[in-house]
């Protein structure tokens, strides 16, 4: 089941990894990430790679094996390159602006929506209708992008709202699309 878990994780020369008990800390040029691992999983450092091992061939341990390997690999990628989620806003008068470290969204409500950036997250507003969520923690970047998208999900009739860049919105025909009628 877990072929992913068997893959070694390459560690670049600019990244330091320390494993103390169940705690793994990855330090790189962009910052530091720490995570508590499951007690059944064992992570060891061999030369410039990390290897994740499981105790048994039970289904539960196979699942944890792949998950643990992916979480640690995401930490290594995060401290070296970082993560970015791009969002796009569609709709007349809909726009985003950055005020200090907060993101202000005008999405057709009677009031603007302000979202504060948690530590480790930066909002970049490239244009009034395109913004990015940038950080080193993949989980936190995805969570903040989902929170922004949830403020006004894209609706299926006109496609207005906040959506991920490149996301396909399923459109509906509406009333005018019906064929036939009363006779």
Order of helices and strands: EEEEEEHEEEEEEHE
Number of strands: 13
Give the number of helices: 2
Total separate domains: 2
> Could you tell me how far the N terminus lies from the C terminus, measured between alpha carbons in angstroms?
60 Å
* Name of the top-level CATH class of the largest domain: Alpha Beta
The CATH topology of the largest domain comes to Outer Surface Protein A, domain 3
How many whole angstroms does the radius of gyration measure? 22 Å
Mind telling me the CATH superfamily name of the largest domain? Ribosomal protein L6
Structure commentary:
The protein has 183 residues and is α+β, with helices and mostly antiparallel strands. It has a four-stranded antiparallel β-sheet with strand order 11-12-7-13, with helices on one face. The mean pLDDT is 92. The protein folds into two domains: 9-80, Outer Surface Protein A, domain 3; 83-164, Alpha-Beta Complex (Outer Surface Protein A, domain 3), CATH 3.90.930. The protein has helices at 59-80, 138-150, and strands at 9-10, 16-20, 23-28, 31-36, 42-46, 49-53, 83-90, 95-99, 102-106, 113-116, 121-127, 130-135, 161-164.
């Amino acid at each position: 089941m877990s072929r992913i878990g068997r893959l070694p994780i390459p560690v670049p020369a600019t990244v330091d990894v320390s494993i103390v008990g169940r705690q793994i800390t990855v330090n790189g040029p962009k910052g530091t990430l720490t995570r508590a691992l499951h007690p059944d999983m064992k992570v060891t450092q061999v030369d410039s790679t990390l290897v994740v091992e499981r105790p048994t061939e039970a289904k539960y341990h196979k699942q944890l094996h792949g998950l643990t390997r992916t979480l640690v690999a995401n930490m290594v990628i995060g401290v070296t390159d970082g993560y970015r989620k791009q969002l796009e806003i569609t709709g007349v008068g809909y726009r985003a602006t950055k005020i200090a470290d907060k993101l202000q969204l005008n999405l057709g409500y009677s009031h603007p929506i302000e979202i504060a950036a948690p530590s480790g997250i930066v909002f970049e507003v490239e244009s009034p209708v395109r913004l990015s969520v940038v950080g080193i923690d993949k989980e936190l970047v995805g969570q903040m992008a989902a929170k922004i998208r949830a403020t006004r999900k894209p609706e299926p009739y006109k496609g207005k709202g906040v959506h991920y860049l490149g996301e396909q919105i399923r459109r509906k025909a509406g009333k005018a699309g019906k064929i036939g009628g009363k006779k």
